[in-house]
Amino acid sequence: xxxxxxxxxxxxxxxxxxxxxxxxxxxYINLLRKKYNIxxxxxxxxxxxxxxxxxxxxxxxxxxxxxxxxxxxxxDT
Length: 77
Description:
Layout lengths: L1 E10 L6 H19 L2 E6 L6 E10 L2 H14 L1
Antiparallel strand pairs: 1-3, 2-3
């Protein structure tokens, strides 16, 4: 079993408050979960309204599958 991990730093120029950021992040995290069937969580910069750090994890028996999923996520981000 292989585990793929990815840490993504995001800049949110359209966020003008923590409330805006939380709505944007909730939508983004739900989209990634549904589209790629992965584990996603905001892991850092929770109280900074213009930035966010997201942790992404995927598990598979095949390294190529994990590499392909992570590459798609990075390109979509």
